[in-house]
Amino acid sequence: MPVMDGVEATQRIRLNESGTMCHMPIIAITANAFDDDRRKCFEAGMDGYVVKPVSPKAIGDQVARVMALFKEPQPEPVQK
Q: Which residue among 22, 33, 62, 80 is least enclosed by CB atoms within 10 Å?
């Protein structure tokens, strides 16, 4: 990205969400495959991480995993 990198963009998004009930799911797609790079992404507030070269399956798996984190809990069935 020409103006800022994904970590900085994520930090700004999370700062703007502060105090709201909003949380935009963010998944990194990066060539940086080291554990330290992954840690920085999650510390910035990213919810998922895919390393290039990517496959449709890898992206789909991360999207499904992240979206499951935000699934609204269903009420427990009433026992009779």
A: 80
Q: How far is CA 80 from CA 28, 75, 76, 77, in A?
A: 46, 15, 12, 9
Tell me the CATH number at 47. Answer: 3.40.50.2300
CA distances 14 to 7, 10, 54, 61, 72, Å, are 11, 6, 25, 23, 20
- The number of residues making up the chain comes to 80
Residue ranges making up the domain that contains 47: 6-11+25-69
> What confidence score (pLDDT) does residue 80 get?
58
**Backbone torsions φ then ψ of 29, nearest 5 degrees:** -120, 110
